[in-house]
Design a protein that fits this description.
Blueprint lengths: L17 H11 L5 E2 L14 H9 L14 H13 L10 E4 L1 H11 L7 E6 L3 H9 L3 E6 L10 H7 L4 E7 L11 H13 L3 E5 L23 E7 L12 E7 L5 H13 L5 H4 L2 H6 L4 H5 L4 H15 L3 E2 L8 E2 L2 E2 L9 H12 L1 E2 L1 E2 L11 E4 L4 H20 L11
Parallel strand pairs: 1-12, 3-4, 3-5, 5-6, 6-7
Antiparallel strand pairs: 2-8, 7-8, 9-11, 10-14, 13-14
Helix pairs in contact: 1-13, 4-5, 12-14
C-alpha cells in the first residue's frame, strides 16, 4: 500500500468528499441530483459579467508569458484603490498580492508564518480550508465558538480564553461561510483590539463582502485594525461569479513597519509557483471599477434574495427545522429542532437524504463544530427549486420520525 501522509487524516473537506463522490455515482446511474453542497454560481446559471469576459479576451495576447509573482499591476492597483475607497487612503499596489483564488493565498500566508505547533484561532463553525491549511502547515487550529443562540456571532470572551503564548493569528470570516452571519462594527472592533492586545496577525476572509441582505452591512476589518498586521482576502469567485478563473487577492495593512520580512517570505513562496493565472487578472480592474451587478441579485426580488427568502420561509413552515436567517454570503445553516430526533446524526441524515431524495447537502459537523444537528445548503438555485428541495427534506424528516431506526444508517467513510 502507498500510504498517504498521516497529517491528511486531520484534514476535513467534506464539501467535496464521500457524499459528493456518491452523488456522482448516482448521476452516472441516471439519477438527477440537486447539488446544494457548494457555492458554485456558474453551475446554477449565474454568469460572470460580460464586461469581465471581454476584458479577459481583449488581453489574452498579453497573457501568454508568466506574470509577476505578486500579480499584474492593473489588478493590484485596482484592489489598492478599492481599499482607498474604504478609508485606507494610503494603500499602495505593493501591499496587494494576487493568487490563484483565496485558497492558494491562505496556504501561502500560513506557510510563511507557522512554526510547528503554533496556534491559530479559527471560528467554529468555520470554512474548513482554514483549519486544513493550519494543520498542513504544521500548526494547531484552535476553534472559538460562534454559537447559534448568539446569531453565530463570535464569543469575544471565549476567544480571549483560548489565547496562549503559542497563538500567532486570529481568523475572521465575514460575511460568514457557512452560517451567513454578518458581523457588526462593534464586534469587528473588539476582534481587532484583541488581536492588537496580544500581537496577533488578523486574517480577515472577506470573499463575500458585497453579498449582504436586508439591512445587513459589510464592514471591512482593515480600517479597524491599525495596531497589528491585518491581511484581508477577496476575489472574483463569488461576488463576480468567476469561480473557475481562480483569481483572489490578499491585502496587507496595519503594522506594515513590522511585517517586511513576513511579506517577503510570502512573496518568496509565491515565486515558487511562478505566477497566478494571468488571463483572469485582467478582469480585476473591470470588475472592481464597473457596474456592481451583485447588488441586483441581493436586493428584494433579486435572484439570491428570493432564494434566501424561500429557504427562510420553508424553515419557518417546517415542524423539524430551525434557522438563524443568513444575512450574507451564499449559504444557510439549518438545524434540527431539539427533541425531534433524539439520535439525529448529521452525516447519516445527509447520506439518507442523498440516497432517498437525491439532494446533496453538507453535514454541519464538517465545519468543525461538535454539534451534529446542522447541515449547510447553498442559496444559489432558483427559489422554486429550493422550496421543492425543502419539501423533500421535510418528507424525509417525517419518515425518520416515524421510523427512527433509519437514522442509524452508517455514516460515509
Amino acid at each position: 500500500m502507498f500510504k498517504p501522509a498521516s497529517r491528511i487524516d486531520q484534514v476535513r473537506y467534506e464539501i467535496r468528499g464521500a457524499l459528493a463522490r456518491r452523488a456522482r455515482e448516482l448521476e452516472q446511474e441516471g439519477n438527477d441530483v440537486l447539488h446544494l453542497n457548494i457555492g458554485n454560481p456558474g453551475a446554477f446559471g449565474l454568469r460572470t459579467p460580460e464586461t469581465m469576459r471581454r476584458a479577459v479576451v481583449r488581453n489574452l495576447k498579453y497573457s501568454e508569458a508568466y506574470g509577476p509573482q505578486t500579480g499584474i499591476f492593473p489588478a493590484r492597483e485596482a484592489v489598492a484603490m478599492q481599499f482607498q475607497s474604504r478609508g485606507l487612503t494610503g494603500t499602495r499596489f505593493d501591499q496587494v498580492m494576487i493568487g490563484n483564488g483565496v485558497s492558494e493565498l491562505v496556504d501561502l500566508v500560513l506557510r510563511s508564518l507557522l512554526e510547528p505547533d503554533d496556534e491559530v484561532l479559527i471560528p467554529a463553525p468555520d470554512y474548513p480550508l482554514w483549519t486544513a491549511a493550519v494543520v498542513l502547515n504544521g500548526g494547531r487550529a484552535v476553534h472559538y465558538p460562534c454559537p447559534a443562540d448568539q446569531g453565530f456571532q463570535p464569543d469575544i470572551d471565549a476567544i480571549r480564553a483560548r489565547i496562549t503564548p503559542k497563538t500567532r493569528a486570529l481568523v475572521v470570516i465575514n460575511p460568514n461561510n457557512p452560517t451567513g452571519a454578518v458581523y457588526p462594527e462593534a464586534v469587528l472592533q473588539a476582534l481587532a483590539d484583541l488581536a492588537a492586545e496580544h500581537d496577533l496577525i488578523l486574517f480577515s476572509d472577506e470573499i463575500y463582502d458585497a453579498i449582504c441582505y436586508d439591512d445587513a452591512r459589510f464592514v471591512p476589518m482593515a480600517p479597524l485594525a491599525n495596531e497589528t498586521l491585518c491581511v484581508s482576502f477577496g476575489g472574483l469567485s463569488k461576488v463576480y461569479r468567476a469561480c473557475g478563473w481562480r483569481v483572489g487577492w490578499a491585502v496587507f495593512t496595519g503594522a506594515l513597519e513590522r511585517a517586511g520580512d513576513y511579506m517577503l517570505a510570502v512573496e518568496k513562496l509565491a515565486a515558487l509557483r511562478l505566477s497566478a493565472n494571468v488571463p483572469g487578472q485582467w478582469a480585476v480592474q473591470t470588475a472592481l471599477g464597473g457596474y456592481q451587478s451583485i447588488a441586483d441579485l441581493v436586493a428584494p426580488e433579486g435572484r439570491l434574495y428570493e432564494s434566501r427568502r424561500a429557504v427562510i420561509e420553508a424553515c419557518e413552515r417546517s415542524r423539524y427545522l430551525d434557522l438563524v436567517a443568513p444575512m450574507g454570503a451564499l449559504y444557510a445553516f439549518p438545524s434540527i429542532k431539539p427533541g425531534v430526533l433524539s439520535d439525529f446524526d448529521d452525516h447519516r441524515f445527509a447520506a439518507e437524504l442523498l440516497e432517498q431524495k437525491h439532494i446533496l447537502v453538507v453535514p454541519g459537523s464538517s465545519f468543525n463544530i461538535a454539534q451534529r444537528n446542522h447541515f449547510r445548503i447553498t442559496l444559489l438555485p432558483e427559489a422554486e427549486d429550493l422550496a421543492a428541495a425543502f419539501e423533500r427534506i421535510d418528507e424525509l424528516l417525517e419518515e425518520l420520525t416515524e421510523s427512527p431506526e433509519r437514522v442509524g444508517l452508517a455514516a460515509p467513510a
